[in-house]
Structures are given as C-alpha cells and as structure tokens.
C-alpha cells in the first residue's frame, strides 16, 4: 500500500475521496440554487386566478351528495373548460350542468370570467 491509495480503515484521502467530495459539494450548491429560486418565485394575483381556473376546469359529479340525500339532490354532471382569454389576461370558462344520464342535453350553460381580485381585497387560493 503506497501513498495516495485508499486504506480500509484510514482517512481515505485518495482520488475516490476527492471525487466524492467534489460531487457532494456540487450537489449541495445545485440544491441551494434550486431552493433559492423557489423561495424567490413570487405568486402574483394572476397566479391565483390561474389556480382558480385550473381548479374549476374539468368534469365533476354530485354523485356522493345525491347518494347521501337523494330526496334533495340529483346526480348532476358539471363540465367546465377554458373558452378564451380576454385582452386583459382574464380567463373565460365555459360551464354547463346536465343530468348524468343525459350529458348531451345540458340544462344550464354559463360563461365565467376568472380574473384577479382587486388589491384592496384579500384573496387566498390554496
């Protein structure tokens, strides 16, 4: 065993130890950069409006509510999808409601505009 080799019980100062140390330092630096970028990313009012539009989009059913109280609730299908975006950046969603057995015949159709609330209002979307 000459100098510069890793020994089983020794300090391990050879090439393998140097490479491991360099890889570990690179990972720590890389992880730190990612963490700082995530912490610096701000969520704007427009980000919140997009989160609301994403949460509303899709197909939803009132199946569970109708099962629990069939005398007062029907199993309805609610479909919401993005329709367009306005010039100011507000999103427009198309919304329809239909009985789940006849989804091709909606009884209610609406367009909803989703835009950020004014700065004076506190609006949290989680």
From TrEMBL:
<dbReference type="InterPro" id="IPR010404">
    <property type="entry name" value="CpcT/CpeT"/>
</dbReference>
<keyword id="KW-1133">Transmembrane helix</keyword>
<keyword id="KW-0812">Transmembrane</keyword>
<keyword id="KW-0472">Membrane</keyword>
<dbReference type="Pfam" id="PF06206">
    <property type="entry name" value="CpeT"/>
</dbReference>
<dbReference type="GO" id="GO:0016829">
    <property type="term" value="F:lyase activity"/>
</dbReference>
<keyword id="KW-0456">Lyase</keyword>
<protein>
    <submittedName>
        <fullName>Uncharacterized protein</fullName>
    </submittedName>
</protein>
<comment type="similarity">
    <text>Belongs to the CpcT/CpeT biliprotein lyase family.</text>
</comment>
<feature type="transmembrane region" description="Helical">
    <location>
        <begin position="18"/>
        <end position="36"/>
    </location>
</feature>
<dbReference type="InterPro" id="IPR038672">
    <property type="entry name" value="CpcT/CpeT_sf"/>
</dbReference>
């Amino acid at each position: 065993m000459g100098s510069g080799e890793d020994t089983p019980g020794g300090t391990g100062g050879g090439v393998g130890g140097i490479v491991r140390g360099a890889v570990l330092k690179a990972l720590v630096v890389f992880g730190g950069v990612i963490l700082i970028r995530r912490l610096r990313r701000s969520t704007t009012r427009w980000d919140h409006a997009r989160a609301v539009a994403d949460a509303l989009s899709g197909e939803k059913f009132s199946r569970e509510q109708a099962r629990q109280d069939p005398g007062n609730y029907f199993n309805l299908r609610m479909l919401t999808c993005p329709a367009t975006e306005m010039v100011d950046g507000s999103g427009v969603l198309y919304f329809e409601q239909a009985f789940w057995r006849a989804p091709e015949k909606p009884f209610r159709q609406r367009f909803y505009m989703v835009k950020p609330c004014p700065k004076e209002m506190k609006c949290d979307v989680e």
